[in-house]
Automatic annotation (TrEMBL):
Top-level division of the source organism's lineage: Bacteria
Protein name per UniProt: Mobile element protein
Gene Ontology terms for molecular function: DNA binding; transposase activity
InterPro entries: Homeodomain-like_sf, Transposase_8
Organism name: Bacillus thermotolerans (Quasibacillus thermotolerans)
One Pfam family cited in the UniProt record for this chain: HTH_Tnp_1
Length: 91
């Protein structure tokens, strides 16, 4: 069984540049034809790299998802440490 090609990989700087161009007035169709990136992909990047609010330093949806993932991991670590502390306190 053959695997489907993974497709092109773009770094975050390139993605942010495309999003900045979109916000400066370029249409998705223009950007798609000029840079060879599908329109659907550009819309996804716009969603991922546009801040949630207009405040400076507001997280993007992608950054927010990363923060939530790290928060979950840290909560799990705390629970493990609490259980270990209880075990050692009994000894």
């Amino acid at each position: 069984m053959k695997r489907k090609p993974a497709g092109k990989k773009y770094n975050d700087d390139f993605k942010k540049t495309i999003v900045d161009l979109y916000h400066s007035g370029s249409s998705v169709k223009e950007l798609s034809s000029e840079y060879g990136v599908s329109e659907v992909t550009i819309y996804k990047w716009v969603k991922d790299f546009t801040p949630i609010s207009s405040e400076k330093g507001a997280p993007t949806p992608k950054e927010l998802a990363e923060i939530q993932k790290e928060n979950l991991r840290l909560k799990q670590e705390v629970e493990i440490l609490k259980k270990a502390m209880a075990i050692f306190a009994k000894k």
